[in-house]
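[step 3/7] inverse_fold.run input=structure_tokens len=308
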């Protein structure tokens, strides 16, 4: 099947790119492995998106569903599938799926985003889904009034802790540094929340339990003291890993595996663009992901016009 613009990934970047591509009168196809929305789906309240006001502001899920509908209304097509390879053949791209199907496109936007980074400690994999989680809005309701540990110190960790603090008054954030890396407003609200206890200079060495999580082993990074504390759940929010394997042999990547782009979201391969969390230097906010998608689609349309 030959199309104009093929977009891999349906997070905020991919959905916005689909909308702008379709509005440019391109034949647009979006391929998403899971559900449209990407990491926006796990945002409880999208309070820092410009214009998203009301009581309460729109959730990440509702925002993503609106983006999806907009793109569809403008004419973009969506399919669910796993992309297995992206190749440049002559002036076109051949995008193959794991089910054996393939598509030919004049331009491709990679918007595959990133996935949660693991701590890589004993017990993390063993208790995944049994007390260890990477999504508070997905799994938080299972731990109402329970003792919850949150690992991390950035925006996402503070957001996760705030959401969980509405479910339990026994939330503890452990962060390996002596201060949060999150935005100032988030830090202030986190430190002022009576349901959240903060332990700086602390790392989790191990998650322990039997059929489910029962405790965590903690280490003080300053004194070296090791303690074990009871816990019913561990929510891990320590950053992300780029999902760039599809193009690792095609596009230039930085040292961390993110796709290198210019200000037009162009890669070193003509006709191949990247948008959202996947590209090097991204701010990794819903707002900037959407902006990246619009820029990528605009320049993809210009590229297609040039080669027509």
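[step 3/7] decode complete -> sequence:
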């Amino acid at each position: 099947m030959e199309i104009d613009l093929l977009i891999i990934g349906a997070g905020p970047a991919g959905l916005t790119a689909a909308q702008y591509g379709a509005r440019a009168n391109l034949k647009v196809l979006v391929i998403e492995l899971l559900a449209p929305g990407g990491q926006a789906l796990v945002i409880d309240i999208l309070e820092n998106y410009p214009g998203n006001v009301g009581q309460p502001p729109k959730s990440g899920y509702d925002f993503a569903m609106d983006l999806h509908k907009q793109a569809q209304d403008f004419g973009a097509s969506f399919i669910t599938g796993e992309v297995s390879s992206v190749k440049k053949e002559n002036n076109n791209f051949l995008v193959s799926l794991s089910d054996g199907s393939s598509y030919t496109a004049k331009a491709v936007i990679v918007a595959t985003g990133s996935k949660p980074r693991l701590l890589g400690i004993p017990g993390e994999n063993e208790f995944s889904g049994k007390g260890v989680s990477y999504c508070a809005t997905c799994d938080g309701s299972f731990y109402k009034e329970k003792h919850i540990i949150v690992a991390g110190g950035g925006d996402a960790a503070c957001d996760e802790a705030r959401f969980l603090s509405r479910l339990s008054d026994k939330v503890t954030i452990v962060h390996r540094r002596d201060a949060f890396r999150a935005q100032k407003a988030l830090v202030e609200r986190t430190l002022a929340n009576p349901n959240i206890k903060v332990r700086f200079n602390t790392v989790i060495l191990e998650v322990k339990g039997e059929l489910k999580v029962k405790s965590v082993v903690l280490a003080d990074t300053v004194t070296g003291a090791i303690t074990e504390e009871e816990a019913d759940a561990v929510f891990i929010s320590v950053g992300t890993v780029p999902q760039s394997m599809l193009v690792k042999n095609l596009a230039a990547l930085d040292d961390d595996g993110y796709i290198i782009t210019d200000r037009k979201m162009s890669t070193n391969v003509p006709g191949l663009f990247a948008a959202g969390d996947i590209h090097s230097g991204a701010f990794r906010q819903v707002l900037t992901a959407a902006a990246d998608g619009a820029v990528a689609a605009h320049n993809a349309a210009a590229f297609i016009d040039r080669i027509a």
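[step 4/7] annotate
The two ends are 18 Å apart (CA to CA).
The CA atoms of residues 144 and 167 lie 5 Å apart.
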